Amino acid sequence: MMKSYVRMNSIHFQGKAWQIKMLLSQWQKEAGPTAKVIDVIHSRYKK
Known about the structure:
This is Z-ring formation inhibitor MciZ. This protein is α+β, with helices and mostly antiparallel strands.
């Protein structure tokens, strides 16, 4: 089971490598190929 922890300035993943790779690929498709990691973190952070 994969878990992700999103904070204001970081993301932590726990899971199998293939799960993390799939999630990051999905986020890249949503954000676009030129998006920066920090922008993705901020768009996913919910206070």
